[in-house]
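#dry-run=false #mode=assembly
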Amino acid sequence: MGESAGQPVPPLTIDGHWAFDYTYYAGDAASRFFAELARGRIMGSRCPQCQRVLVPARGFCDACFVETTEWVEVSPHGTLETFTILTTSFPGLPEPPLVVGYVMLDGASSAVLNFVDGIDLADPDAAGAALLGRPPVTARFKDVGEGRITDFVFTLDEPA
Amino acid sequence: MLTQAPVTLYQGGVIRPVYLHGSAVSTTWRDASRSLTDLIFGCVQAALGDAGISAASLGAIVLAAHDLVDGRGLTNMVTAPAAAAYLKDETRLGDDGALAFVLGDARVRSGSADTCLVAAWGRASEGPIDEIAHALFDPFTARPLALTEIAVSGMRAARCLGDYPGYGRWRGGAAARRHDAAARRGHAAAPPGAPPADPSRVPPPAWPLVAGELPVWADMVAAVVLSSQPGPVRVAGVGMSTEPYDLGDRDLTGLTALRAASGQALTAAGVDVAGVEVLELDGLTLFDEALAAEAVGAAPRGEGMSLLANSDRVNPDGGGAAGYCAPAMGLVRIARAAGRLRADRRRDATTTRLALATGASVVAAQVQAAVVLEGA
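#status=ok
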């Protein structure tokens, strides 16, 4: 004979934590892209079929499904196509608020993401409104490159 | 040797028709009295009951879940039996529930199964949704730049505000309508304009997004039962499409994958979106829902937010404001659409209405699925 359910018990919860270390392989194309970045050059790869210059440079074109082997240096100047002002903090990353945006560099056919520096964020609404008009920006590189996407940030060509 | 066959659009109904017989959606938050498997079991049971069949009658199961969201490796191992998969033909997708629906439809339409259960879930209260979203982005070019799903929505919203005056003009009205609809369903996080009663239910915003435009996190489960036997709702057309992984290579406000997927589904159904009365469109934020309305052709470019502010046609139950957790949402949208069609038929048996439901994958809606349903 089975037991009755008895007195209700408080629901049990336990904490869990995943902490895994990964090693991500960048591959030849991305390795070269980041090596060039450390030297202050932003590189794209041209698709032989659609002729688009994809930045960051990559090994193949998604749309055409062909290898991209022609490397093209693009300008550090471009247009801030869109952005957002972040308020979320992540371990190991700069403290918010941060402006991050996609820039279409001159000579490129795809936009590249990075922080946009030097903007007064005391009034986020005012800062955001000033950036809506697709302002011109320029990539500003660190003095010593590390071969990472954070080797440069974008800065406005004219104050917001 | 394979030949290069011409590409043809999938034509619904060419092999076997597919009908939706039952559906259920479960929306809860931090109910510690129920485990994840309890939630799934309850919702699947409800869907089977709605369809009037037992688990033993199912020929196939298609499930959509995500290990990172569930916080369990090979999540479906523990959750599949709760979804009636014991000793069943089961397929697992680590992607949105609408994509699982398309696969389930294919199973029945092709004759490889007579009945198929499709289920999807996500329990936002168990894990750090924003941090999980961050982990899904590229480790070389996006994660170091703090990108999250909300951040991408923020960028879409900024572009909309810059390009289309209507987005700024109508966003308040659309948010209020969305909130009121969610409140009628009992799932609004807080009164409009007020901080959420439980701040953990709403993610931190990314400018220009404000609280009322963000999703309300919830523990979501959805389940539907498909069969080749005639039923209350017919699957008239389906479509799927995938965009590039790199966001810099996408049209962030054009949602080209959704445009393609909905076009496929509408063409297969032989209808124009103008003839579709019910639109259940997946979108992480209000701006994503507005852009989805444009992508499926329900509003001209730049006028999606106006449509949301002035019409109950899109997400009449509140969309993401009535509860959100990937990867359940596409199947939630499908279940809601089916429920609305069936309610309409009960009110008027002569009514035959159409619904379009969509679902988007993670990594900023890289993959989109669209489904056209017809009240049968």
